[in-house]
Amino acid sequence: MRQRALLDWWASERRDLPWRRTRDPWLVLVSEIMLQQTQVDRVLPYFAAFAERWPTPEHFAQAELSRVLAAWQGLGYPRRARNLWRSAAIITERHGGRVPADLNDLLALPGVGHYTARAVQVFAFGIDTAVLDTNVGRILARWTGRRLARAEAQRIADDLVPAGESWAWNQAMMDLGAQVCSKRDPSCGQCPAQPWCAWAGEVLGSEPSGQPDPAERSAGVSSRQAPFEGSDRQARGRLLAALSGDSLPTERAAAVMGLGHEEARARRLVAELIAEGLITGTGDRLRLG
What we know:
This protein has 289 residues and is mostly helical. The chain has helices at residues 2-13, 25-35, 40-53, 57-62, 65-72, 79-94, 103-107, 114-125, 134-144, 150-160, 166-179, 198-203, 232-243, 253-256, 263-275, and strands at 248-249, 279-282, 285-288. α2 packs antiparallel against α3 (40-53) and α2 (25-35) runs antiparallel to α8.
């Protein structure tokens, strides 16, 4: 049985991660928001700090956004912190301080898409559904030997979930993708899924197949990100980092962002950050939140 083979492998190869030691829906949501487009190693210290400082949605909703953004500094994509802060307020006001289990209620929270909503359902509430992230999308494409549209990939993933074991199964799939069925240099010979994987049959064949990886551009599989150096993301991050210590004269924003010769671009980025609620402009000074 495929499910049992993978679960048996995972029993000895599982990663010990702090968010796997809790079923608290709030802490699960915090971890999933942090893990969006961010590597596990970077998230580890932030998750521990946030869990201790803001252990409930009520605690987090009462915090000043500027303090939240300052604590988030270095984790990247600060709009996620703002979305989590807004979600905490909604959870407190509309759901009595309890993270909802209903899919539509979860999707109504800022910054929560289908992946994050399903992750909360599975890892906090044990609901029998599948979480389709980049690792799982890659695995499914390789197992079937073809690119998959999102709806089909989600259906296949849902059908594979063993009844009553969604928590372990989804964790096992993620670990398989992170540790064995990696994007580059997958260890097909050591993979517990090798016997039923269509792509492994191609890779391990006696003759080079020349077949492209079916995971490329398949559903759930992330594409290569644009370079960070010189990007708007880098410039925005520099300004937010500077503001985490104190306010800043507006006229210094371009220099802080490394855009001293690109005043128009600097003004655009400042305006975007203000519109997103990540900074405020009062008089001639800029501040977090």
